[in-house]
Amino acid sequence: MKDLKKTMERISLGFDINTEEILSKTSFLSYHIATYNAVNGELGMADGPVTVDEIFDYINDLKHEGVVTDMPSITKLDVLLTFRLLLKTGLGKQTTNNLAILSN
């Protein structure tokens, strides 16, 4: 087979557009937070806390370097919401009373 381009098709989940946008941003951020944590783990910082600012800066770096195409518009509030959802689902742990810091 010749080089097949792999693309991800956006499909409607039957939610209103705002809900779909939040779900899209949350899944995007969850993946990139996990990637960020994996890289930190390889660098010997596996147990270090991750902040909203770190993730926001990381996402902006990806955007400006052109690493990720079709990136949704991400705000710090989106990152904070994703942190909160990861905590609620048990996929992260809060190391301080400051919600803006999450540990993997």
Structural overview:
By secondary structure, this protein is mainly α. It has one domain. It contains 3 helices and 2 strands; from the N terminus they run H-E-H-H-E. It has helices at residues 17-42, 52-65, 76-88, and strands spanning 49-51, 101-103. A two-stranded antiparallel ribbon has the order 1-2. Helix 2 crosses helix 3 (76-88). The longest helix is centred in the first third of the chain and has 26 residues, at 17-42. The chain is globular, with a radius of gyration of 15 Å.
Strand order of the largest sheet: 1-2
Rg (CA only): 15 Å
Number of domains: 1
User: What is the tally of beta strands?
Assistant: 2
Distance between the termini: 40 Å
Oligomer: single chain
Report the principal-axis shape: globular
Helix count equals 3
Summed over residues and divided by their number, the pLDDT gives a mean of 78
Instruction: State the low-pLDDT regions, or none.
Output: none
- The helical percent reads 40-55%
Structural class by secondary-structure content: mainly alpha
Largest sheet: 2 strands, antiparallel
The fraction of residues in strands falls at: 5-15%
Pattern of helices and strands = HEHHE
Give the key terms.
single chain; 6% strand; 104 residues; mainly alpha; two-stranded antiparallel sheet; 2 strands
Short description, anyone?
By secondary structure, the chain is mainly alpha-helical. The protein has one domain (about 20-104).
List the topology elements.
Elements lengths: L16 H26 L6 E3 H14 L10 H13 L12 E3 L1
Antiparallel strand pairs: 1-2
